[in-house]
Amino acid sequence: MPDEYQIALDPSLHLSPADFLAAWNASPQARAAGQLRPDSAMPQSYLPPEAVTLLLQTAVTIASTVLAQLIYDLLKEKYYPQKPKIITINQGDGRPTLVVTIGIANRQSHDPHHHLPNRPIPKQPLSRGRAIRQRPAPPISVSDPFSAAEEERLQWYFEEWLSFPFTGQVKAAEAAASVQMYGEALFEQVFQDRRVYSQYDKALGQHGFSTLVFEIRGTSAFHALHWEALKDPAQGHPFAVECAFYRQNDIPRRADYQIKPSPTLNVLLVTARP
Fold first, then answer.
1. C-beta of residue 119 within 8 angstroms of C-beta of residue 107
2. Residue 230 CA to chain centroid, in angstroms?
3. Would you say 87 and 21 are in contact if contact means Cβ atoms under 8 Å apart?
4. Domain residue spans of the chain
5. Distance of alpha carbon 71 from alpha carbon 86, whole angstroms
6. CATH class for domain 1-118?
7. Band of the pLDDT at 98, cuts 50, 70, 90?
8. N or C, which end of the chain is more exposed by having fewer CB within 10 Å?
9. Opening angle at CA 34, ends 44 and 184, nearest 5
């Protein structure tokens, strides 16, 4: 039984469905993946009304990350040095939606008023710190990519909705998609310095993705950022899926603890949400 995937083109791409279809049909890898055609369905509520959607039918199930990488490869030369970005949204209806847009920094300069769910980065720096362990790197200034309201939506999604996931489907889908946007917004800030990006690109090419190690050091405000969501728009998943993340407090609290003898060993297990 064939599978279906919806592909939504952000209007800020200025890419017509015909051009995208032509690029798809010109690629042997894309044609082998499945048949692409215009989609007559109305855009989902979480997409802007101007978004153009296409329908991809595949003979077998294909992971969304594989399709995202395939679409990225199709478009990366057209938009270079900008970075096409693919956001996967799964509403639970069996047909994932892959939203195709452009990199955050480039998108803002291209169309600052468009409202696909990306958020501008505040101008005032929140904190400073170092987020790469590979070798000494230039200091970076990082701002929280999300507003207080967006942080509250994330908190609702991870702490309330997942306990009773039967209502608020649209809001939950937007919150889930926003995690990827958040991680890519952090990436744009951390690697906007060419010297930092050069070190990252060199380490990636020489040693591979899974060998990267991130050490997060800084103030409490710096640690409050969701560093484990950090994601390269060109990769199919966040760094934390394969890479090691270490957090270190520059000013650790000093406390003297005395352990009393006891026949019982009590273990406190804390699991952090994303």
1. no
2. 7
3. no
4. 1-118, 119-253
5. 8
6. alpha beta
7. confident
8. N
9. 50
- pLDDT tens digits, 206-235: 887 778 888 888 788 888 888 889 999 888
Single pTM value for the model: 0.48
Q: Which residues in 39-66 are b (16+ Cβ under 10 Å) and which e? A: beeebbebbeeebbbbbbebeeeeebee
Tokens (6 digits) for 249: 């407090």
Using the structure block, give the residue that is written with the tokens 């904190």: 127
Task: List, as one string, the DSSP characters of the chain.
Answer: --EEEEEEE-GGG---HHHHHHHHHH-HHHHHH-EEEE--SPPPTTS-TT-EEEEEEESS---HHHHHHHHHHHHHHHHTTS-EEEEEE--SSS--EEEEEE-HHHHHHH-TT--SS--PPPSS--EEEE---SS----EEE--SS-HHHHHHHHHHHHTGGGSTTS-HHHHHHHHHHHHHHHHHHHHHHT-SHHHHHHHHHHHHHH-GGG-EEEEEE-HHHHHS-GGG---TTSSS-GGGTSEEEEEESSPPP----PPP-SS----------
Sign, CA torsion 176/182/184/187: negative
What is the per-residue pLDDT across 130-174, written as a single tens digit (0 to 9) for each?
A: 444 445 556 777 888 888 888 888 888 888 887 777 778 888 888
